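We store sequence, tokenised fold; for instance:
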Amino acid sequence: MSVLQVQLWRHNRTWARQEGASYSMLVPSDEVTINYRHGLPMITLTLPTRRERCQFAVKPVVATVGAFLQDIQREDKGIVRAEVFATDGSKVSDATLMEVLLMNDFKLVINNTTYSVSAPIKDKLSSEHATEMEDIKSLVHRLFVALHLEDHQIKKERELLQKLDHLKEQLMPLEQMKARIMDSADAKTSRLLWVGLALMSTQGGALAWLTWWVYSWDIMEPVTYFITYGSAMAFYAYFVLTKQDYVYPDAKDRQLLHYFYRKSKAQHFNVEQYNKLKEELAEAEESLKRLRQALHLRLPIQEITNKD
């Protein structure tokens, strides 16, 4: 009689807990079972501390293994270890979706007890029902995109604008220093060009004076020949050293860069950091441009241009 009274009291307490708990309690058993109800897998197991059967409803497309294990530990505070392993002994990541886990058999470890769980057998859907389910999934996806994509794009636009402001703040002192260095290098290059013109004018005047007032053309002709030949050798040496033709604009730019880098080193201007920030700024501006095109996709081109 005492045994029967104890069993009856535990049975009544089980039903009392069932009314206040979020999970239904079933007949005690040590097995872990998985059954489908209303299209959702129901995992039934025994809580080790309370020795009661508890049923967990799982959303396989959304829920993860880690969330499922947290639900078990939340239901029974006496569980200190809850893990899932594959049949070959490898641990299943907490980020794995329950939909993937339920495709194959697995092992559930609760404290020091290991349960072998068989994958549930899901009823096969008819082709019409499967097509209808795919249409519903597609519709839900389109509704989610329509409701949340614009908010995500606006949030991303704000992040890109903040990044642009931060990059511009970092570039402002570098741009000012670069402008001063560039002005100094450009002035030096211009002075060098004017010095070259002055030397060429002096050389021409000296040759004319020697030809008509000091010597004759018969004497100065070989001199001018060797001067011309020496100039050709200088241009060829320039090509050998730089692998470029001696074109005046290119030569001027090359000399400008030479003065610029020498001045940058003297004033401790970090050219590599400046170039890196400029590349990041260009990438952020390009990303913002593409994002705004998606945001204003339904607006006329003229309106987009004016708004930009």
